[in-house]
Design brief:
Radius of gyration: 23 Å
Distance between the termini: 48 Å
Order of helices and strands: HHHHHHHHEHHHHHEHHHEEEHE
CATH class of the largest domain: Alpha Beta
Number of domains: 3
Strand order of the largest sheet: 1-2-3-4-5-6
Oligomer: single chain
Largest sheet: 6 strands, mixed
Length: 413
């Protein structure tokens, strides 16, 4: 049995805080043990704090700080998704670069240096170019903002637009690689050729059924009831196939089905909800976990969610999010400051979940415009109905040691 530290002359509040730290540490150790990575030898001679630090350092390469257990449980003991840092670290075990980056984030958080590290211009060619001789802009960008959602929520009857499944599948499968060509050649050929006719004489197996149903979904005249039926069939067939290479695609299908169902639900009450421009570590880590349909979930495929470290650590990326009363993200868009060759510009990526209440999407866009006005920068979005932006925009670098970068319009680089 591991021994628990005790100190004399604690007042009641300090004793309670110490007990909570210990309980949270034990909870984290239990999660590490589920991974099969807990070092069990000689536990009876070690404190809970020592066991926690030793085993965290086994899966995340940290340098360690004084009062590791206390500080770790302060940042990760009561998160909205319990012990998400352990879940994410488990996914990254085969990617040493990403693990090293995660270790740097953890070191920075526990030492109190993370906010400064995120905007360190000596570690990023991009940030140095963007904010050179612009300390006021850097401060305003880093400060972010927060408001009641009601201030941006227009009481207008926003009609539900038809769901563009063709665009969604092209984006998720071709642009973002949620499925490989060899797993669904019929579907990929259809997406690339733009065919409007479905051949019926295919071999009748589950994978073929999935592809045919996906193609049927792209019929613009399909009623919502039939769309839900097809999505349920696809989800059921994917469960039956149960292969890891289909996990990201199945996540997409689940999110679309959930979004379609929610569109038919009773009008949502958004009283007390907030809208934020955030760089808080928990919001950034959970930016792909608390919303449906994102491949950047902490428990997602490591070939894709390794890019989450760019959201978390690189100061050119922030999060515009709508949060409920409990602080959970219910809709979000990645907010970037990029370079057009002459000056910085702002770029707002697509919304998640894909089938979000249109009023929430409009609220985030209005909030982004307010932030752009305050920063005195041009705001760019993905909108095919608007004139094309003539200049190219780019990220000049990631912040060292971020190894990967992910963008909905541009894919990972």
């Amino acid at each position: 049995m591991a021994k628990i530290e005790s100190k004399e002359n604690f007042n009641a509040k300090e004793k309670l805080e110490g007990i909570l730290v210990t309980l949270r540490a034990i909870s984290t150790i239990k999660d590490i043990n589920k991974m099969g990575d807990l070092k069990k030898e000689n536990l009876e001679n070690k404190t809970i704090s020592a066991i926690l630090e030793e085993n965290i350092q086994k899966i995340i390469p940290t340098t360690g700080v004084d009062d590791f257990a206390g500080k770790f449980t302060k940042f990760f003991g009561e998160t909205r998704v319990p012990n998400f840092i352990i879940t994410y670290a488990a996914k990254l075990q085969a990617d040493k670069q990403s693990l090293q980056c995660l270790g740097s984030v953890l070191d920075g958080l526990l030492a109190g240096d993370f906010p400064k590290m995120r905007y360190d211009m000596t570690k990023s060619k991009h940030l140095a170019e963007i904010f050179r001789n612009k300390p006021e802009l850097l401060q305003m960008w880093a400060d972010g903002g927060k408001s009641l959602l009601a201030n941006f929520l227009k009481e207008t009857d926003v009609s539900l637009q038809p769901i563009n499944f063709l665009g969604i599948f092209k984006n998720n499968l071709i642009d973002h690689g949620h499925l490989k060509y060899e797993e669904a050649p019929l579907l990929f050929d259809f997406l690339k050729s733009g065919k409007k006719v479905i051949q019926e004489n295919f071999k009748a197996d589950k994978l073929q059924d999935i592809q045919i149903n996906c193609i049927k979904l792209m019929d613009e005249n399909l009623l919502a009831k039939k769309q839900k039926e097809l999505l349920k069939e696809i989800d059921s067939d994917l469960k039956e196939i149960n292969k890891p290479q289909f996990a990201a695609f199945q996540n997409d299908i689940k999110a679309l089905l959930s979004g379609l169902i929610k569109r038919d639900e009773v009008k949502q009450n958004y009283e007390g909800f907030s809208i934020v421009d955030s760089d808080h570590y928990e919001d950034l880590f959970l930016s792909g976990t608390e919303v449906e349909g994102s491949c950047q979930a902490v428990d997602g495929s490591p070939t894709l969610n390794k890019c989450l470290m760019g959201y978390v650590f690189d100061g050119k990326n922030r999060l515009l999010a709508i949060k409920n009363k409990e602080g959970k993200i219910i809709a979000r868009q990645i907010f970037r400051i990029l370079w057009n060759g002459k000056e910085p510009v702002l770029f707002l990526e697509g919304v998640y979940p894909r089938l979000v209440d249109p009023k929430l999407k409009l609220a985030i866009e209005a909030f982004a415009k307010q932030r752009a006005k305050a920063l005195d920068l041009q705001l760019l979005t993905i909108d095919p109905t608007k004139p094309k932006y003539e200049s190219s925009i780019s990220s000049l670098s990631t912040l060292d040691p971020v190894p990967y970068e992910y963008s909905d319009p541009a894919m990972a680089t």
